[in-house]
Amino acid sequence: xxxxxxxxxxxxxxxxxxxxxxxxxxxxxxxxxxxxxxxxxxxxxxxxxxxxxxxxxxxxxxxxxxxxxxxxxxxxxxxxxxxxxxxxxxxxxxxxxxxxxxxxxxxxxxxxxxxxxxxxxxxxxxxxxxxxxxxxxxxxxxxxxxxxxxxxxxxxxxxxxxxxxxxxxxxxxxxxxxxxxxxxxxxxxxxxxxxxxxxxxxxxxxxxxxxxxxxxxxxxxxxxxxxxxxxxxxxxxxxxxxxxxxxxxxxxxxxxxxxxxxxxxxxxxxxxxxxxxxxxxxxxxxxxxxxxxxxxxxxxxxxxxxxxxxxxxxxxxxxxxxxxxxxxxxxxxxxxxxxxxxxxxxxxxxxxxxxxxxxxxxxxxxxxxxxxxxxxxxxx
Length: 380
Ligand SMILES: Cc1cc2nc3c(=O)[nH]c(=O)nc-3n(C[C@H](O)[C@H](O)[C@H](O)COP(=O)(O)OP(=O)(O)OC[C@H]3O[C@@H](n4cnc5c(N)ncnc54)[C@H](O)[C@@H]3O)c2cc1C
Known about the structure:
This protein is an alpha+beta fold. The chain folds into 3 domains: 7-120, Acyl-CoA dehydrogenase/oxidase, N-terminal domain (Butyryl-Coa Dehydrogenase, subunit A, domain 1), CATH 1.10.540.10; 122-230, Butyryl-CoA Dehydrogenase, subunit A, domain 2; 238-378, Butyryl-CoA Dehydrogenase, subunit A, domain 3, CATH 1.20.140. The protein is 54% helix and 14% strand. The protein has helices spanning 7-34, 39-47, 66-79, 81-101, 104-116, 230-266, 278-307, 312-337, 339-342, 347-354, 365-378, and strands at residues 121-124, 140-144, 147-157, 165-171, 181-187, 193-197, 210-219, 223-224, 268-269, 272-273. The strands form 3 sheets. A 4-stranded mixed β-sheet has the order 1-4-5-8. Strands 2-3-7-6 form a 4-stranded antiparallel β-sheet, with no helix packed on it. The protein has a two-stranded antiparallel ribbon with strand order 9-10. Strand 9 and strand 10 form a beta hairpin. The mean pLDDT is 97. The structure holds flavin-adenine dinucleotide (FAD). Flavin-adenine dinucleotide binds at residues 89, 123-126, 131-132, 156-158, 201, 204, 207, 209, 357, 360-364, 366-367. The site of flavin-adenine dinucleotide has 22 residues, from strand 1, strand 3 and helix 11.
């Protein structure tokens, strides 16, 4: 068993770490404070090829493997959780899905600009009554001549503020839950999309989340993949998406450990650095160990995405372990910095808020446990 990164993966990781340090980290506090979508940073990330990391060079991407992509998301998240998740939506939930299931005309129209970083994408699955129960889609797509009329409401659509295209899931056959849903590629400037800005969110602020009220017509040529098989396609997308969220969580957790280490070395109480106290050392040790363990699961899930047809369980385990390890790391960092972390505007305060979303989006921790439990029970 080889557990080492290749020279190419390491070189790419270092390149993205440098970009994250020099460009992304400088904007992280400002993005969080204003809550504004960081179009400038996304533009800079596009210049590094970070909107189409795994997309083949033939379609304008970098043609990297999933491990490299996950390392890139982790490196970006260490600087800004918001930028990392925004990039992961375009990569995993939009570009990769079009590469996987799109027709050549759809790839020409959307994949190439996405992978080149000329456009960003959004993914509209969640609805007011379809969160964890995502198969309970109430948005309808009713067949008309040459296409469909799509009506309904989508909530929490990340990137919606700036996206050029959104994948919309809608019910094409009533009463069939997951079997009667179709995915459509919809330009965001289509007449009949009403966007409403989401209220301020606790963390990952600046993600451009909006709710979408839909009453529009789409052509048959906008069906992505096969009619009635959109739910499967959405779940396919989440295998990659969850690896990316695991990587995002690890980046946030690593940043919390970085902050805690730096503070513990320089903060003195009772005449010596608090890093000398075993109580602090044990917190640092637990943070480092839990993050390292979760990183192994994340890399395993990323490698499985490259080599296995299906990697649902690996992705769920990685997301569950990484998001919970990162949550604990942010909590311990807050304890180590104490009042210096609790201050509004401290880095740890931002990490503490940002990390929480990783246990919620792309399936809550309970949803990941349901997937894992079903798999282990089936294997007994
Ligand atoms: C910042 C942010 C960005 C997002 N971006 C997107 C996006 O781009 N596109 C998109 O489509 N969606 C997006 N979402 C929505 C996200 O995917 C959902 O919030 C998530 O799937 C959970 O759904 P819910 O919030 O409706 O919670 P619910 O499904 O209402 O769950 C409430 C609670 O009940 C638990 N629960 C539900 N069912 C069960 C069960 N059977 N067993 C045990 N526990 C259960 C849940 O785990 C949770 O604890 C985003 C959300 C956030 C916060």
